[in-house]
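Hey, I'm writing a tutorial for new members on how sequence and structure tokens pair up, and I'd like a real worked example in the thread rather than a made-up one. If someone can provide the structure for the chain below, I'll link this post from the tutorial.
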Amino acid sequence: MVSAALLHEYAGFNMTDRLAITKTHKLFIGGSFPRTESGRSLKIVDNSEQVVAHLCRASRKDLRNAVEVAAKAQPGWQKATAYLRGQILYRMAEMMEGKRAELAETISSVTEHGQAEAEVAASIDRLVAFAGWADKHQQVLGCANPVSGPYHNFTFPEPIGVIAAISGDTWPLLELVSLIAPVICTGNAVVALASQSNPIPACIFAEVCATSDVPGGVVNILTGFRDELIEHIAMHRQIGGVLGSAELSSDERTALRLGSAENLKRVAFVSPGEDTGDWLNAELCHSPAWLEPAVEFKTIWHPSAS
């Protein structure tokens, strides 16, 4: 039975005065949300120095787990029809539309550029744009080569396999989406490392992936410190390529290049232009040039009838 004193205490309780619960975001690996095996966490503070969320601090073991599930999922994703991949990317944009307000709030409370709504809108448009490229990039990037002889010669793009995507900090959601979309559009699986200064939008984007028909393991998102994980990303032999924001520091880019040289991993750092605001420019960021770092080219010869 509820005591009279307790009833009196809550008599004046207003639902608008309820306690705000600080959310703990987990990693996104293999379509599920595990905690880091290390048990470590990091806290994110807003512009007024208030803690707004706790996140998992990914370890080398978490990275290894993510790569393993990505490597298992990638062959099936590559064999999926280009039409299906495009439909799933479009579904991701639809689901992100439903989280527009939540994403804008998490960006504006921590990130300094002050264009949260524009960043979310551009991220949604970017998914739609690369959904359209899923069944068209083969014709645009491939070609029939002029050769002399009774045969045809064709060059066409193929996915690399597992690609690590490393986001910068200026546009925590937009840079992440701009790196992931062309990677999965072309049939690769991705292990993404979220923005270090504000990884919360990446965690919400992971929820989008989990409800958007994306096969488990095709998209994996880690949160943590770049200086702890970059060396292991570069040295991991199951990662076929690294796609990073050009915003990464000189030391970080050097570490990725040196580590990848040992296993001949492809490394590319992308940026739409010199100005950070260029990330919002659809004309610069929806180009098929963004697909090239995510593919390798195969040339075949085929006898002709004449």
